């Protein structure tokens, strides 16, 4: 990169677009790898001759976070839809693993002015599927192996924040069916299912107190 203390962007521009892998974890266990793509190289310098080179980037999922796209899928499974929507993604840059719980084909799905990542994110939300990048692969669906990891407050977790928030639960919705010239409407019950939030909040607070004691 040049003489000691001399850093220029001209010598570092080739970093952009390259894959950068970081490994972290405990010495006693298997390290966790994270592979990302360098998208920005910048030089920061103040009050002196020496500068600092800052390299930043994103996970390879940015390759499917490009501009809005259009697509339609008829009688395809979720696994097929994911593969078709990302077929132009270089396999050597981003490996995509599909293991959706739903095996039944979906009647009809349309991607309208959505980036590919937004489309996959919407599919995962609508059909209750997992979507996550594990550092090496983009996974759609649950992994075959799920390990339970114990985390300890004060050692593995440095900070913890939880809250309660008021949200509107009573609403009305309207729609018009032009084929039959009728107005459609629905109204929420105005009550939340499950236990009251205050009780749940108190139980969660007790659990945290037990962790601290």
Summarize the structure.
Among the domains are: 12-58, no CATH class; 63-140, Phage tail protein beta-alpha-beta fold, CATH 3.55.50. It is 18% helix and 32% strand. It has helices at 9-12, 78-85, 116-126, 197-212; strands at 19-24, 32-44, 52-58, 69-76, 95-99, 106-114, 131-133, 137-141, 172-177, 182-187.
Polypeptide structure, described:
Helices cover 18% and strands 32% of the residues. The protein is of the alpha+beta class and 213 residues long. The strands form four sheets. A three-stranded antiparallel beta sheet has the order 1-2-3, with no helix packed on it. A three-stranded mixed beta sheet has the order 5-8-7. Strands 4-6 form a two-stranded antiparallel ribbon. The N and C termini lie far apart (52 Å). The model has no long low-confidence stretch (mean pLDDT 86).
Q: Low-confidence parts lasting 5 or more residues at pLDDT below 50?
A: none
CATH topology heading of the domain at 63-140: Phage tail protein beta-alpha-beta fold
Number of helices: 4
Strand coverage percent: 25-35%
Termini distance? 52 Å
- CATH architecture label name of the domain at 63-140: 3-Layer(bab) Sandwich
Radius of gyration: 24 Å
Overall shape: extended
What is the string of SSEs from the N terminus onward? HEEEEHEEHEEEEH
Biased composition (Acidic residues): 203-213
Pfam families: Phage_GPD (PF05954)
Region (Disordered): 183-213
Protein name: Phage late control gene D protein (GPD)
């Amino acid at each position: 990169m040049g003489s000691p203390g001399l850093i220029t962007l001209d010598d570092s521009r080739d970093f952009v677009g390259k894959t950068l892998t970081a490994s972290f974890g405990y010495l006693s266990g298997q390290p966790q790898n994270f592979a990302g793509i360098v998208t920005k190289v910048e030089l920061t310098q103040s009050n002196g001759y020496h500068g600092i080179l800052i390299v930043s980037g994103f996970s390879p999922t940015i390759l499917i976070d490009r501009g809005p796209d259009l697509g339609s899928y008829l009688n395809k499974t979720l696994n097929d839809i994911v593969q078709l929507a990302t077929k132009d993604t270089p396999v050597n840059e981003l490996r995509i693993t599909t293991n959706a719980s739903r095996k039944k084909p979906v009647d009809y799905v349309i991607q309208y002015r959505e980036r590919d990542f937004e489309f996959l994110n919407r599919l995962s939300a609508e059909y209750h599927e997992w979507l996550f990048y594990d550092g090496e692969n983009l996974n759609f669906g649950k992994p075959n192996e799920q390990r339970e990891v114990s985390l300890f407050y004060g050692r593995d977790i440095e900070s913890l924040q939880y809250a309660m928030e008021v949200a509107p639960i009573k609403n009305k919705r309207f729609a018009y069916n032009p084929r039959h010239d009728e107005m459609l409407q629905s109204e929420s019950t105005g009550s939340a299912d499950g236990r009251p939030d205050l009780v749940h909040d108190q139980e969660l607070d007790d659990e945290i107190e037990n962790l601290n004691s």
